[in-house]
Amino acid sequence: MNKADLLQRIIDTLSFDLDVAQRAAQTAYEAATAEENIAENKYDTLGLEASYLATGQARRMEEIRQARAAFQQLVLRDYDPARGIQISNLVTLEAENGSCQRLFLGPEGAGLKIGQGEQLVTVITPRSPLGQRLLGKGEDDEVSLDLGAKHQSFVVIEVS
Fold this sequence. Notes:
Blueprint: H1 3-33, H2 46-73, E1 90-95, E2 100-105, E3 113-114, E4 121-124, H3 129-134, E5 142-147, E6 150-159
Parallel strand pairs: 2-4
Antiparallel strand pairs: 1-2, 1-6, 3-4, 5-6
């Protein structure tokens, strides 16, 4: 999968997620404002809980909308060894145990997974611990990070 196809699949996935979040927010809003959910006493909190849910869904919807906009505006750049890994690079890492993972360094949408099996690509951002360590690195460079008591080490196998 090339980067242009990957970018379009990320935008499509975020659009789908936004649609799902919009429907969930609308459902929560309707529950919060439904006449049958008006509190009858101080212990009746169904309407209040639904309003909290609607607020959370609205926030999630805005996060997805912003992520989608960031990807729609993203200019894909080829890997430049002089600059090292930057946003819009597709990176393949090999762990100490020999397993490989493909990562797309994006502006938003951390944790989004596109594809399956060996074609699986995970979106990370420069704000993540791994993303921070990858910036400026090149092919064959080693990247290490400590997450709690767990030490992980990777080698950059390929960048595009």
